[in-house]
Amino acid sequence: MATHLSVNVNAIAQLRNRRSLPWPSVVGLSRIALQAGASGITVHPRPDERHIRRTDVFDLTDMIRAEFPKAEFNIEGYPSEDFLELCERAKPDQVTLVPDDPAQATSDHGWDVATDGDLLRQVIGRLKLGGMRVSIFLDGDPALVPGARATGADRIELYTGPYGGAFEPDVADAEREKLAATAEAAARAGLGVNAGHDLTLDNLPSLIARVPGIAEVSIGHALTADALIHGMAETVRLYRKACGETV
Length: 247
Ligand SMILES: CC(=O)[C@@H](O)[C@H](O)COP(=O)(O)O
Ligand SMILES: NCC(=O)COP(=O)(O)O
Fold this sequence. Notes:
Elements: E1 4-8, H1 10-16, H2 26-35, E2 40-43, H3 54-67, E3 72-77, H4 81-90, E4 94-97, H5 117-129, E5 133-138, H6 145-150, E6 155-159, H7 161-164, H8 169-188, E7 192-196, H9 204-210, E8 216-219, H10 221-230, H11 232-242
Parallel strand pairs: 1-2, 1-8, 2-3, 3-4, 4-5, 5-6, 6-7, 7-8
Helix pairs in contact: 2-3, 10-11
The chain binds 1-deoxy-D-xylulose-5-phosphate and the ligand NCC(=O)COP(=O)(O)O.
The ligand NCC(=O)COP(=O)(O)O binds next to strand 8 and helix 10.
């Protein structure tokens, strides 16, 4: 089964927010990405609304449900009461829980499933009651998988930052092996596997080749940078090819 591409539109929102003007359009570029064959859209609304605003979440929900009923909407974030209520109102297909401090510049680690197990079990139960699939952000370490499974999550999202940030081949190889071992342990435990953070056209093919069971990658920063060069539609096609899709 091919790995699905979910386009993260945080960086598009961040560019729009430089001015009090409605462009570039988060909904418009998400529409182009879906028309070009992306499987879904990802947003990570942060409490300070530095990029995605609460209104974007509802505008995207309306567009996706009306125009692309088979597409997946994925909302990522720390499970604060505000975030949980936002998800319960928007009802995305998937919620990805990330252990981010509000002041954090970007996501840089997965959950400590031992320490935060009780919190995760409680919020995952609540989100699943609302009909949403739940994924949890996890470092590449197979020892974390039993704890992840005990939370009741449906999937894990492998935190690929250390792999994406490794520019020496032997370091990248070692990071990829950790991700592969974690994905294999997750599959054995009955968990689905997503992946994301700092994935690019350069580092994606060898990850997919080594870890073919990845159900979905969510990609934003590098994909948006590439879209400035190639345009959104062509960029989505390039990333779909890198995911192993026949385009
Ligand atoms: C969860 C994750 O990996 C992040 O990549 C995130 O979605 C990106 O957040 P920012 O766009 O705020 O850096
Ligand atoms: N979950 C990861 C994501 O949505 C995008 O991360 P990045 O490509 O912006 O690093």
